[in-house]
Amino acid sequence: MSLGATVPNPNKKNTENWDIFRLQRKILLIFGLWPADRLVRRWYTKVLIAINLVTLAICIVGEFLHGLYAYQDGDLSEFIESICPTVSRISGFLRMVFYLINEEKIHRVLNNISKVLKDNHPRENNITKEMKVLGQQFTFYLFLMMFFAASLYGVTPFFIMGYNWFHEQRPLVKLLPFKLALPFGSQTSLYFVLTTIFLNYASAPTITSQSGSDALFSGVCLYIYGQFQGFRLEVEALAESLDKNLLKNSATETQRTNLELRRISKRHQEIIDLVSEVRNAFTPNVLLVYTATAIIMCIVCVAMLVVEGIYKLTYLPYAFAELTLLFLYSYSGTLIRDSSEAVQTVAYNFPWYRCDRNTRHLIQMMMIRAQYGSNVDVPFFETSMASFSAIVRTASSYITLMKSFL
């Protein structure tokens, strides 16, 4: 190697390859965890991940103890308000733990996507661009809702303290974010300032652990949907290239068609394999979302009924954010399922009756694969809009039941 040779920077390479997941990557890097960087992760990034996980764990314990004390004192309203952020933090903590456990699998999925993007056919560029824009929009609105909810949790106590100070309440009662009361005396100014800073910082890993990981899953599913759409365009373009005036293809055209269909069939199998990898990599997170969302929505909606005053406003964006999370998972799964099954129709519309036996066999194989369909379903749950509707109905039933006990 010559002395003037430039050594490639692996960090730069990783940065340049993820334009399709640009916003998801930025959000996840706030937590410190981007799976594609796992082999080149700096020590200070590992420290950041550890700090964020410990922060979430401390908040979970503190909020749970506060809720337990409120429950023992018979204050049901305080108990419900305390466990609202706790459940969200538990969900975010488990998301990141599952990401760390499955980081290699997620990294493999992202690498496969990066390789395919380099070999995109020009006719697929528009589809990829559309899916990229849609994925970034989903990510932005999801992050915005969760950020708004966390901000309201953080600033509402200051609005109330300002109101009390304006009405000359003396001594002024200091209120912590998330209506939390830690074991030490929070009325001490130093303790109050440090606790407020800590709790507001804890909102960052809570938001990023959910919005980043869930938006990444949605972005990957949108990309796969775009691949199925590109597959459809390839089959249709090949069908259009055949001479429609012939009842049977010539030997030259048959050979060309057979070679193209072999390449297209191989790509179809690669997409199916990619769906399988996505399902294996994201199964714990999908299962967590479908299991926990109904409970979280139930608790949030009940809290909206029992709290009073300005605190009601803090739960509205929270409920919308959880509903959006569930919708993104369900909608993403539906897109993959429908686009995979649509391949069967595209293959059947191909003029296979004018081809030889080998070519017809390739078409039949595509139809058989499409008949079974590709999906990102997990145990006990089907990632579809039907599941979204069922979980929302279940949450509504829980809310009605809990309301009868209040």
Automatic annotation (TrEMBL):
MF terms (GO), sorted A to Z: odorant binding; olfactory receptor activity
TM stretches of this protein: 47-67, 79-101, 138-160, 180-202, 287-307, 313-331
Organism: Anopheles christyi
UniProt main location, coarse: membrane
GO biological process annotation, one example: signal transduction
Cited Pfam families: 7tm_6
Keywords, ordered alphabetically: Membrane, Olfaction, Receptor, Sensory transduction, Transducer, Transmembrane, Transmembrane helix
Membrane topology: Multi-pass membrane protein
Name this protein carries in UniProt: Odorant receptor
GO cellular component entries: plasma membrane
Subcellular locations according to the entry: Membrane
